[in-house]
Each structure stands twice: as C-alpha cells, then as structure tokens.
C-alpha cells in the first residue's frame, strides 16, 4: 500500500508507503479541526447564560480554495474503465470486475489494519450500488468519490451508500448520490466525523442521518459538515440525533418530503445557512426544525445552538422549534409562502429569532405556542422582523416573552 499522486485513467504506478494522512487530506482535516476548535471556543463562551444573545461572529478571512476531488496523494484507489472497476493498493490490483461496491470494499480492506492515522481512498468514475447494501468505513479512513453513485433496487433498513458506525476520524470530502437509498450517508456513534461537499439528488430515502442510537448514553461527537445539497427525499434532507459538537456550513434542501435540516437532541451546534424550498410540503415539518430537547444541556437551556440564516420558500413551515428544545439564536430569517406557520415555537426555551434581521411574508404566521404535556414556552424573543401579510400570535401565554423592534405591514400582533 502506498500513497501516490493523482492516478491516470487506468493502473496507477506503485509508490512506497508513507504513514499518516497525505498532505491534501491532512490540510482538509486541519481545516475541519480548526473549525471545531473555533466552534468549541465559541460555544464555551455561549454556554454561559446572558441577558442578551451573543454577538454574531466577525467575518472571517477567506479560506484557501479546497482541493479538487482526487487531487494529491492517496493510499488506495478505484478506477472505472468501460464497464470494469479496478481497485488498487498502491500499484497492486486488488479487485477487477463490474461491481463498484466490491471494488470500494476491496480498497478499504487494502488500507493498513489497526491504523491510527487517516488513510485516503479516491474513487474515479460513476456507477451503481444496491440500496440493500452499504460501504462501511472503519476508523481513520477518508473516502473521496469523484463521480456519481446511483442507488438501485429496494432499500434495506439502515443501509447507506456510505455508512460509519462506532468509528472515529472518518472523512467523506466528496460524494454525489442519485436514486433512492435508505440513507445517503449514515453515521452512528462516531467521533471526529467530516462530510465535505455532499450532493444528493434523490428520488426517495433520507439524505444524511447522524445519530448515537447504538449507545444513547454516549453522544456522537465533533461532526463537521461543509456543504450539503439535497433534493427529492422521501424523508428529511439532513438529520442529527444525539450529537455533541456540530459545525455545518450550509444545507440547501429542495423538495424534501420532511425537513431540510432537523436537529434532535443536539448540543453545541453552529450552522451557517439553511436554505429550503418546498421542504415538508403538506406536513408540519420545516426548512429548519429543532426537536426532542435539542439544545438542552442537563436541565437547562444555555445558548449553545447558533444559526446564521434560515431561508424558506413554500413547503410546510419555515422555522419550527418543538418538544422542549431551545438554547438557540437564529441571526437572520427570510421566510415566505409557507403552507403552515412561517415560524412556530412550541414548548421551547431561550430562543432568539432574528437577532440581527429578518423578513416574514405570509400567508404563514408567526406563533408562540405550548402543548399541555410540556412546560409553557419561556424566554422567547422575536425581534428585528419585517412582517408582511401575516400575524404574530402568542397563545397560550408563555413566560418572559419579548416581542420588539418589529415592523408590521398589513399584519396583526396578539401577544401576552
């Protein structure tokens, strides 16, 4: 096994083994680590209760351009030529045949057993995999797919194009998926997980699911997602459940059956942008949804979830916080034409919406509400909004609700 430079169209030359992550991957991991470190420092400060929401982060200097898919050195590769897939361990062929999944599995097996530093696989070409099978990535593995994986057949429970369970230091810098998988990417009980440029133009299934449901006493930790585009799901676009330490650059969701981005029981999270169109049409789901005690740490709700911007057009709801979630600041909102509420805050605590600015256009309204089975909403702030052809309603009354500095245009307000 040996890392080598970008492969020609067929067999790459052999190269001597070099331990550790290759330079481009190391740079990518360093970038991800820097994001997480910066995030950790920010959330340490955010975790202290404050009367006012924390200030927005200052604009950062432009980061160096990311390496193109497949650039640089790697340890194993998979290359398509005609109808044949060939997997290489350095310069040695370890698989040749028509099955893309078996070729990728062979490349994974070719990496150093028991390794403690990341080794990289590059896949070149597009092909099909079965919806009833998965590519499982072990710890200290990076998989980069320079092509499109089309999922065919009947989905099987918990299967995914890429699956990582009970692992650490796993990275998927590039992945394009079409078809109807059960999951596009599935991570369960992992640590130090990185997803880069993920593009999923689906006809069913769920895009990205990250949870801790193999051992709910131990959260999945330190997850970084750079940029996800997801469309056409039969479920959510991106969903987390039981995560501590989440950094997302952007989620762009189009015509997902349920939410574009759903965070459940996730703490210490920072999201740059959620952009949803047609998310959850005809349902109560939203472009961005927080549920199931999302943002709750122990028995309290220190501010630990920060979202830069939520954009929503059409669909079900724009922004939805529910079921004892909170500890969140959403800096900017731009929501219009939703089929249900533009914004619904139900049994949530310490949530600030439009900390910087926002615009909501009907027909969907803005509502602060509570169900009887949970404590009433508390510490909700709606501010800096321009509300057009809509309404702001609080019913039943919450505790310590603040509604201020809003401009109503052909809209009504009824708050306690």
TrEMBL record:
It comes from the Bacteria. Residues 1-22 are annotated as: Disordered. InterPro entries: Pectin_lyas_fold (IPR012334), Pectin_lyase_fold/virulence (IPR011050). This is Right handed beta helix domain-containing protein. It comes from Streptomonospora nanhaiensis. The lineage of its organism: Bacteria, Bacillati, Actinomycetota, Actinomycetes, Streptosporangiales.
């Amino acid at each position: 096994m040996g890392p080598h430079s970008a492969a020609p169209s067929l067999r790459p030359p052999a190269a001597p083994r070099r331990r550790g992550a290759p330079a481009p991957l190391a740079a990518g991991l360093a970038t991800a680590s820097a994001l997480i470190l910066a995030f950790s420092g920010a959330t340490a400060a955010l975790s202290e209760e404050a009367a006012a929401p924390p200030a927005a982060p200052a604009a950062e200097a432009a980061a160096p351009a990311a390496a193109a898919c497949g650039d640089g050195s790697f340890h194993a590769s998979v290359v398509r030529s005609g109808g044949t897939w060939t997997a290489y361990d350095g310069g040695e062929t370890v698989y040749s045949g028509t099955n893309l999944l078996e070729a990728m599995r062979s490349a994974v097996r070719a990496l150093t057993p028991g390794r403690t530093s990341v080794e990289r696989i590059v896949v070149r070409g597009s092909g099909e995999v079965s919806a009833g099978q998965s590519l499982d990535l072990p710890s200290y593995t990076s998989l980069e797919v320079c092509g499109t994986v089309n999922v065919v057949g009947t989905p099987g429970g918990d299967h995914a194009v890429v699956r990582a369970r009970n692992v650490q230091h796993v990275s998927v810098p590039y992945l394009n998926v079409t078809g109807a998988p059960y999951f596009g990417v599935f991570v369960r009980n992992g640590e130090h997980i990185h997803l880069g440029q993920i593009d999923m133009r689906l006809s069913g299934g769920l895009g990205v699911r990250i949870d801790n449901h193999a051992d709910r006493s131990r959260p999945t930790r330190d997850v970084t997602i750079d940029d996800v585009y997801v469309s056409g799901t039969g479920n959510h676009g991106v969903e987390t459940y039981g995560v501590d330490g989440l950094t997302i650059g952007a989620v762009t969701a189009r015509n997902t059956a349920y939410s574009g981005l759903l965070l459940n029981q996730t703490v210490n999270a920072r999201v740059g942008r959620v952009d949803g169109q047609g998310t959850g049409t005809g349902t109560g789901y939203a472009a961005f949804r927080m549920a199931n005690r999302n943002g709750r740490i122990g028995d309290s709700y220190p501010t630990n979830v920060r979202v830069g911007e939520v954009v929503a057009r059409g669909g079900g709801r724009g922004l939805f916080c529910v079921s004892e979630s909170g500890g969140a600041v959403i800096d900017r909102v731009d929501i219009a034409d939703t089929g249900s509420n533009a914004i619904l805050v139900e049994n949530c605590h310490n949530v600030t919406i439009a900390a910087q600015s926002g615009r909501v256009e009907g027909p969907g309204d803005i509502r602060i509400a509570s169900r009887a089975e949970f404590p009433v909403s508390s510490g909700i702030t709606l501010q800096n909004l321009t509300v057009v052809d809509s309404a702001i309603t609080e019913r039943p009354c919450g505790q310590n609700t603040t509604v201020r500095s809003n401009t109503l245009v052909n809209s009504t307000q009824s708050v306690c």
